[in-house]
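Weekly sync notes, structure subgroup
Attendees: PM, AL, DS (notes)

Item 1: joint prediction request from the bench team. They want all two components modeled as one assembly rather than separately. Inputs as received:
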Amino acid sequence: MRIIIPVLLFAFQLGAIVYARFVPTRYFCWAPFDTQTDYAAMAIVNGRPLTAAEFRQRYRRPRHGFDNRSPQHVIDMLRQVEEKRARLGEKASVVMEYRVNGKDPKIWRWPPSSKTETQKEN
Amino acid sequence: MMPEGPSGAEARRLVSQPSWNPLKCAGTDLPKNLAIMVKTLAIAALVVNHVRILPDPWLPFVPFFDLFPPVLFQRTLQTLFLVSAIAIVFNRRLRLFSLIIGATMLVAVVSSKAYYGNNKTFCGLMFLLAGLYKPGAPSFFRWQLAITYFGAGLNKLLDPDWQNGIFFENWAVNRLHQSWYIALDSRLPSMLLARFMCWSTIATELGIVPFLFVRQLNAIAVFSNVLFQATLCLFTGTTFTLFFYSMTACSLALVTWPEQPAPVFYDASRKLSHVARRFFKRWDLDKTFQWAPLEAKPASGSFLYVFAGRKVYSGFRAVQMLFLLNPITYFLLTAAIAAVESTPADVGALLRRIIVGGSLVLLTPPLAWVLDRFSGQGSLTSRSFPNALRERLTG
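Output from the run, pasted for the record:
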């Protein structure tokens, strides 16, 4: 066990490094501080806009802020919260404007308004 | 004249039982370098009060964790974490409690996307690998560090924003507001400095990997790792939660620690020798060193010689080694850097830079080289030292 567990952990990490080449997320593949995402989000739940405190409680991150990994990590958190809450009957819409490494802003919306979740703003 | 300090057998007997004294490291069920590593990490985790951010299940990577009652889950993690960290600091069953705290941190990482982070994952892995330590097994720490640097370097290498410097330009200017970077950048062609910083980071991260696996280059890999992490801390003023502590502490797992008391010879006719001897003997709680006056002065005329493994250090370099081979050095540095977390951000960043920068200056070879050169101590190789003295004390 003292050999097998480390070997399995290393195999998993190497697999995650390869997997990261094909997806926008960067989980468990050792990409710390490789991307700077600054974002501003707004959420409306059952017709009422969330305050900053409510937003933080719901998504466990501030309404405006930074993330030092792939922007997909922020999107994952917002999307997965809404997927869970939708099953409880809540109706929510979220709009997040974000910039990756200071470049042109992009918009992400929930629920997705078109075939792709991410749209580039003109 | 008899050497001061315990003989090899006596020293082993004295340290055969682990002490409750948190400043001691000998006699535990881990090799001394690994004991220092896990204790350093436990001190960092306790001082920064990491236990407070251990999560309840929230958007877990493994849905199974959603089955647990959130409060019970979080309290269980916190209890295991706290008990293990305290046990490690007080030298109780280091291997077992390293395993528990490592597993606790990794469970926390996979149970919450809000808690997930590379720094926590790496720290958890360091504890876990120490807990799984098996004498004679391959050095898994070496592999873990290599995979980490390979993953980090590869991701940057294939990212266009790293290739053209956009990442660094945005990070240094818009996020960190790094004044010296902005000043230097304004005097150079556009993006030149950003590209240089990005490519030197990529080269360092990928360059360390092969060095880790070539025995002759291992010391360079260890030194590069510490220097790289220290530079990051100096540049940003942050420790990236537990990342700085874990990455630098990992270096301890890659070095060979003296198994027997390391002989230290001093020139009894020099006042400086006595000052050094009194100071270091007081803090040598693990009886790592065996002091003896020089009987025959070597040609280099240094006031101090330290034998560590197959190497001999003299003069101020020997003084540095007395610090570097003493676990208390790492405990104090870690506690000091971690204690800064509670200060306001700007003050904290400044204090961290002072501590890390000061340590780099005081504990790396250039300063000792300068001091030895200007004090006329000269340098010494093991060949130029009277072998008879070494054999009498180490044989």
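Discussion: Chain A is about 35% helix and 25% strand.
Action: AL to compare against the crosslinking data before next sync.
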